[in-house]
Amino acid sequence: MEPLEATTVFLVVCVSCLLFLSAWRKMSGIGKLPPGPVAFPIIGNMLQLNMRNLPQSIHELSAKYGPVFTIYLGSHRVVVLYGQEAVKEALIDQGDEFSGRGKLALADKLIKGAGIIFSNGERWKQLRRFALTTLRNFGMGKKSIEERIQEEARFLVERLKNTHEQPFDPTLPLTHAVSNIICSIVFGDRFDYEDQKFLTIINLTEENNEHFRSALGQLYNFFPTLMDYVPGPHQLLIKNSEEFRRFVLERVKMHKESLDLSCPRDFIDAFLIKMEQEQQNGQSEFNTENLVRSTTDLFLAGTGTTSTTLRHGLLILLKYPDIEEKVHEEIDRVIGRSRSPCMADRIQMPYTDAVIHEIQRYINLVPLSLPHAVTRDVHLKQYLIPKGTTIFPALKSVLYDSREFPNPEQFNPGHFLDENGAFKKSDFFMPFSAGKRICVGEGLARMELFLLLTMILQNFNLKPLVDRKDIDITPVTTFVSNAPKSYQFCVLPR
């Protein structure tokens, strides 16, 4: 070996050893980072993790390293919170310190810190507060949010009747219905199910969801510099996002031309009025960019999550006809067949309420939540987590806690019923996350799930195409979210 080559090899070995030693020292000891597997330079723990099922890898690591541990996704440091105690201590007891939004490189590239979901600091506080207030006090126009959901539920029922008892995939009907509800809230009106612009934005949304969940999309979050030069579907995200942005800007322009400052019709109107009020504030976060992004955030978050939950819920009911029948009985007793369900009915329907909660618990829609970040150096248990560190709250570890939910791998509405059959709340129920970053649309989603599911079951019996024992309700897991396997079924008028 030539002297120069030997020197190079020696230096590489020395640098590698130093990096290993540095990582090891960082990940152990009181007052230091939580423990975790030794990370390799550049790639971190990627070889030790199953990126196709990261939640499972997290579960396995927790057995070795405990409820708070550190992993490296590429060079990106992540502290994982595992179990209800650790999640509560961080997100609720130290809510302010854990209220930052962790980085997702793909989201950062597309969104650049605007809007509600991926913003931080004062911008996030102002935009979130405004969105919550607007959704909560939805006195816009003539329809409440509940009335808008009921109206869309009736359109959905008509669409399902038009299947004429033939097999169909529920993905599009449910997605269109749920999306139309959020369209009504942010854009002021629903779209016809055949409207070409509506179908286009739904397709863009579905495409981008697939790209985010894809293997290349996940890799981008860990190796963004490299992946910028790699061709693949993740590159289409930018093109699709720009097209969606143009659609929202077009709607904003239409709203400006017909705006009545004394009578806001929807979220865009309310935001435009706020922009008008803050014209003299040079530091205002209420500008066109945050309007477009906040509207997009509400649309995207309000479309995919609830429709996926409903789709998975119907699959579960197909497998368990006895549970479906009990819901039918409760609907017939409390609501009957002659009027639409309303939210006031829910308190008299503990079994249906328990079924909906159990659907959300079982499907574990976002197993690692959206990433959080600590807003300053913070102590958690005996560890020190530096400012800016990304946090993964492992929500599945809370939703599947066997002490709270016996046999958590089994679907059982009894997890939310007491011995008298009354609905039983649980502090372990965190499908919307917890703390300061809990989902802005939680209240809307709860209303949609109850009203849409009860309306469907009020009008139809569900008929599977295969033997019920062959129906697989196990979620398909990705880094981003869970989803049911594709399926078809029939609905029979009751």
Automatic annotation (TrEMBL):
Enzyme class: oxidoreductase
Protein family according to the UniProt entry: Belongs to the cytochrome P450 family.
Xref: CDD domains: CYP2C-like (cd20665)
Keyword annotations from UniProtKB, A to Z: Endoplasmic reticulum, Heme, Iron, Membrane, Metal-binding, Microsome, Monooxygenase, Oxidoreductase, Transmembrane, Transmembrane helix
Main localization of the protein described in the UniProt heading: endoplasmic reticulum
Cofactor(s) annotated in UniProt: heme
Keyword Ubl conjugation tagged: no
Membrane-crossing segments per the record: 6-24
Membrane topology: Peripheral membrane protein
InterPro entries the record matches: Cyt_P450, Cyt_P450_CS, Cyt_P450_E_grp-I, Cyt_P450_sf, Cytochrome_P450_fam2
Source species taxonomy: Eukaryota, Metazoa, Chordata, Craniata, Vertebrata
Catalytic reaction annotation: an organic molecule + reduced [NADPH--hemoprotein reductase] + O2 = an alcohol + oxidized [NADPH--hemoprotein reductase] + H2O + H(+)
Superkingdom classification of source: Eukaryota
The protein, known as: unspecific monooxygenase
GO MF annotations, alphabetized: arachidonate epoxygenase activity; heme binding; iron ion binding; oxidoreductase activity, acting on paired donors, with incorporation or reduction of molecular oxygen, reduced flavin or flavoprotein as one donor, and incorporation of one atom of oxygen
EC number: 1.14.14.1
GO biological process terms, semicolon-separated: epoxygenase P450 pathway; xenobiotic metabolic process
Record bears the keyword Metal-binding: yes
Record-linked Gene3D superfamilies: Cytochrome P450
Cited PANTHER family: CYTOCHROME P450 2E1, CYTOCHROME P450 508A4-RELATED
UniProt: heme binding residues: 439
Cellular compartments per GO CC: endoplasmic reticulum membrane
Location within or outside the cell: Endoplasmic reticulum membrane; Microsome membrane
Protein task: Cytochromes P450 are a group of heme-thiolate monooxygenases. In liver microsomes, this enzyme is involved in an NADPH-dependent electron transport pathway. It oxidizes a variety of structurally unrelated compounds, including steroids, fatty acids, and xenobiotics.
Organism encoding this protein: Platysternon megacephalum
